[in-house]
Design goal:
The protein has about 475 residues and is α/β, with parallel strands linked by helices. It has helices at about 60-80, 120-125, 130-135, 145-150, 165-175, 180-185, 200-205, 225-230, 245-255, 285-290, 310-320, 330-335, 360-370, 380-405, 420-430, 440-455, 460-470; strands at about 5-10, 15-25, 35-45, 50, 55, 80-90, 95-100, 160-165, 180, 190, 195, 215, 220-225, 240, 265, 270-275, 290-295, 300-310, 410-415, 435, 475-480.
Length: about 475
């Protein structure tokens, strides 16, 4: 009897994580039904905690949740006569753990939301002119980029830096690698060559082997360590396959675009807004617009801006819940949608909103600073967030078209924000373009598709992978309406 192969996607965001089983569905005789089926087998919360005076990730607890999820994946697959063929890992970008020669984590990894890297920006720029940095890396300036975080480390002798998904893969397999799409977010990666920019390491006094060697999506990191295999109930021969380990890289794989030129918004805690290109845009105008050139799967360039996202709303909800206001999200969005357009807006990209705190008050203060007033009302604050995000998306897409000399007719919204009908409609209104919303689980789909292609269950390039997504998921279309946005 042939055992069907399935794929385990470890998909971890800044506030939650899941382990998901992915199955490739075969077409029936009519040719219908081809696609990817996902089954969430384990969910867990994630978030920053204050440890030793800083905001860090409780990585030990996070890894235990990963093991619990893989154990659940093994159990669920076996109950259905299936075998987990491989494991792929994606998380957020820029953060890392330091591992010593014995393979031990020296401390819980810092979160990008910690303020420590602010003070490092000036010293780094005195050693490396920002224009030179951009010409090499093509990376958007963000105060928490890995390059600035590393500059705060008191000692890097005898340790290696592993980005979060690479750290998980290392603990599973014992193999140290740096997946390329995530490496491109560090500020130490050559956007043209697709390799580490070793001259930047030298200029900053960093060892050239501070990070492990690069690995590309679709390549095998290694197989499970015997003790890990025993704990999770999988064969030691189970592979850990590199996917687009920066979650946005995996999400863009699953954008269900059938057009050659499209814009995408990966909408979640953050908003990643941009275009898919074959070559980076490294002009001075691109730098001034603060666009980034990050690697995508199959050597593509994710030309985008990392913008504020639904973190603003989730933080507001957290504050409101603490005050006793627990209105359902859909009801809250309905209340916000009933308010007239043209209300006050904020700059959702402002670093003022990065750290967790009383978000409603910070938003009202930011509006007040512009000379307008925002009522202390959840619906009004929610509408302000939605209007601000949609307007920001429109500006970013327009700028990306101009800088990359491309024109797009459709905007694809994937991730959690694709379920937010108010945000999708406001985005269509603000951009004046058709918005296609879905799939919600784009990141997990992209993760599974890269694993399945590596295993030979699917073939083709990104257009073929995207066709599987478009044919197998229900998508919602929003068309522009008359708006004052």
């Amino acid at each position: 009897m042939t055992v069907r192969s399935v794929f385990a996607a470890v998909d971890i965001g800044a506030s939650s994580g899941r382990v998901i089983l992915g199955r490739i569905k075969a077409a029936d005789l009519s040719g219908a039904g081809t696609g990817v089926e996902l089954e969430v087998v384990h969910r867990f919360s994630n978030g920053v905690v204050e440890i030793d005076g800083g905001l860090r990730w409780d990585f030990d607890a996070l890894f235990e949740e990963v093991l619990e999820g893989l154990r659940a994946a093994s159990t669920v697959a076996a109950a259905q006569g299936e075998q987990v063929a491989s494991i792929g890992i994606d998380t957020w970008a820029v953060d890392y753990g330091l591992v010593n020669a014995a393979g031990k984590l020296t401390a819980q990894p810092f979160s990008y939301r910690d303020k420590r890297s602010r003070a490092a920006v000036g010293p780094v720029h005195r050693k490396l002119d920002p224009a030179r940095l951009y010409a090499t890396t093509g990376l958007q300036f963000l105060q928490f980029n890995t390059i600035y975080q590393l500059a705060t480390e008191p000692a890097l002798k005898g340790v290696q830096a592993l980005l979060i998904p690479d750290l998980i893969a290392f603990l599973l397999t014992g193999q140290r690698r740096t997946e390329a799409t995530n490496a491109s977010t560090t500020g130490l990666f050559d956007a043209v060559a697709g390799e580490w920019a070793t001259e930047l390491f030298t200029a900053l006094g960093l060892r050239k082997d501070l990070f492990p060697p690069l690995i590309q999506p679709g390549e095998t990191v290694g197989t499970l360590l015997p003790e890990i295999a025993s704990r999770v109930g999988l064969p030691a021969s189970t592979s850990v396959v590199a996917v687009g380990s920066h979650d946005t890289a995996s999400a863009v794989v699953a954008v269900p675009a059938q057009e050659e030129d499209f814009a995408y918004i990966s909408s979640g805690t953050w908003s990643l807004v941009g275009l898919e290109l074959r070559h980076p845009v490294l002009t001075q105008a691109s730098r001034e617009a603060n666009f980034t050139n990050e690697r995508g799967v199959d050597g593509t360039i994710r030309y985008l801006r990392n913008m504020g996202g639904l973190w603003l709303l989730s933080e507001c909800q957290r504050t409101w819940a603490g005050e006793g206001y627990r209105r359902d999200l859909q009801a809250l969005l309905q209340d916000a949608g009933a308010l007239p357009a043209g209300g006050p807006r904020i700059n959702p990209d402002d670093s003022y909103f990065i750290a967790p705190d009383n978000m409603p008050e910070r938003i009202r203060a930011a509006v007040h600073h512009t000379g307008e007033l925002l009522p202390d009302d959840p619906a009004a604050i929610t509408r302000c967030i939605m209007d601000s995000l949609a307007a920001g998306y429109a500006r970013a897409i327009s700028a990306a078209e101009r800088l990359a000399e491309r024109t797009v007719d459709v905007v694809h919204v994937v991730g959690g924000g694709s379920q937010n009908q108010l945000l999708c409609q406001l985005t269509a209104d603000a951009t004046g373009r058709r918005v296609v919303a879905g799939p919600v689980e784009a990141t997990a789909l992209g993760n599974v598709l890269v694993q399945a292609r590596a295993a030979g269950q699917v073939t083709g390039g990104l257009p073929e992978l995207r066709a599987l997504v478009a044919g197998g998921h229900e998508l919602r279309v929003f068309t522009p309406e008359l708006s004052t946005l």
